[in-house]
Amino acid sequence: MRNFRKFVAVASTGALTLSLLVAGALPSAAASRTTEQEVANAATLEMSVPEYKSMRELAEKGQVELWANGKKFLPNSEDSWPQSIRNLPIGKTSLYQAKTWGACGVKTANNKHVRIWYVNKTPYARLAAVLNCGTWTPKNPNGGWGYRHIAGKHGGEWKQLAAQVAFNTNWRDIADFAINDGLTNIYSSARNPANNTFRYKGKIELKWYDGRTIKTYYTTVAVDQRDRRIITAYYRSKK
């Protein structure tokens, strides 16, 4: 009887909800709190926090896939592939297998080739787009070019995108997939006379496993017109 009276007294003061929360009886309220990391991750992916949390629930179940022009991303390591597609020939499926990039160490020459793609666009069809090690420094985060610039300036963005995809993969595989499509299935292109580069835009999509689109991004690959070096590569949610 004494406990019942105490319960009624707490309820009458309006403190019942607070008492239950302290006692741990409302875990869903605590679980709904947003962390600073979640806010940062959502901002990187150009999503609202609720959008990001909803996608993370899918991603943690392995239900988020990355697509571009009818092809689904696969990492370059077959060990990461699901068993359902491990024995399928890549050429006969709507899958894209990322290629391994060359290494860039601290002392590696700036002009070392990391990866070469070919532009599928008149009048530049079949011209190379070469990713070299390049340059970048934290003191000038917007400067530099090549792999080092992409890793230093945009690596965090690519890593966050890779973290959502339903494979155990790294950001270079994701970037390989996006750059390849951006130079092969060009959404739009334009020359920037200020620095003599050509910017090729592609389109990639985060999709739920049943084909519904979660988020669309537009990629940009900037290529120097003189020597065909890739200057930068990144994605944004707006064209």
In short:
The chain contains seven helices and eleven strands.
Structure description:
- By secondary structure, this protein is an alpha+beta fold.
- The protein has two domains: 33 residues, no CATH class; 175 residues, no CATH class.
- It is built from seven helices and eleven strands.
- Strands 1, 2, 3, 8, 9, 10 and 11 form a seven-stranded mixed beta sheet that branches.
- Helix 6 crosses helix 7.
- The N terminus is likely disordered.
- How many whole angstroms does the radius of gyration measure? 24 Å
The dominant shape is: globular
Average pLDDT metric: 82
- Domain unit count: 2
| Largest sheet descriptor | 7 strands, mixed
Topology (elements, then pairings):
Blueprint: H1 2-12, H2 16-22, H3 27-31, H4 36-44, H5 49-59, E1 64-68, E2 71-74, E3 95-97, E4 113-119, E5 127-132, E6 135-137, E7 140-145, H6 146-162, H7 171-184, E8 188-192, E9 197-208, E10 213-224, E11 230-236
Parallel strand pairs: 2-3
Antiparallel strand pairs: 1-2, 1-9, 4-5, 6-7, 8-9, 9-10, 10-11
